[in-house]
Amino acid sequence: MKIFYSIEEYINLKINVNHYIPTMGNLHDGHMSLIKNSKKNYNKVCLSIFINEKQFNNKKDFSLYPRTLEEDIKKLKKLKVDYLLIPNKKDIENFSSSFDKKLEPKKLTTDLCGKYRPGHFLAVIDIIHRFIQIIQPKKIVLGEKDYQQLIVIKELIKIYNHKVKVVSLQTVRDKDGLALSSRNNLLSIDEKKSASDIYKALLFAKKLFINKVPIDKIYKEMHKFFEKSPIKLQYFAIRNFKLLQCECDNALIAFIACYLGKVRLIDNIILKPSTI
Length: 276
Fold this sequence. Notes:
Blueprint: E1 2-4, H1 7-12, E2 19-23, H2 29-41, E3 45-49, H3 59-64, H4 69-78, E4 83-85, H5 89-94, H6 106-109, H7 113-116, H8 120-135, E5 139-143, H9 147-160, E6 165-169, H10 189-210, H11 215-225, E7 231-240, E8 252-260, E9 263-272
Parallel strand pairs: 1-4, 2-3, 2-5, 3-4, 5-6
Antiparallel strand pairs: 7-8, 8-9
């Protein structure tokens, strides 16, 4: 595995990357699944590790974000990742142009999680826009746990006509159904057990939907589900699978954002897949 700390060095080698996986490090089995999928049929897989401070609405969250670079590098070497890019903020800014804020797709970036995390998705768009310019991959590989982020990045690619395809892979879960996330490391053992209720709630919502329970009733049932739980629901929402807008369509997805203690967790489940 070739590790780059310098973007200039990376650019000068004129590497043709097939699959690119953006991360903020603290790699878990969810990240590993993205890498393994990419390595199945392709070489020249590039992964980046950069903790983007602008994505954090709370400075404390940024300072508490788990930093495990040495362990991450060992894991990546074991999986034989071809290239690892570990740049600093100044280097990224010197070798890329910023996203034009006037083009921000606000219908996507200010709804759902964006409503509670102002500026978060604009920061995501900017950093991914910059890394696409720098790495110039054929494909970018993303997990579906943060489905809103996935749709936002797809919109970025449309806006700038980036010549890159998005590969999305299913959320990886632990044995109790909890979606894998770096934030899970901030949970106690008991909290992790409680957190499994998030996926149980989503499965319940899907069961209600399949049984033709009206959507407004599903919303009420979700709030009831968490009334006596240590999990504090921030929002439950049902949206269009492709555009995340209306609730009335042939393809729907349900979202949950919640707090367990001071840790914010998100998850989603497809209620009705697209028939297209």
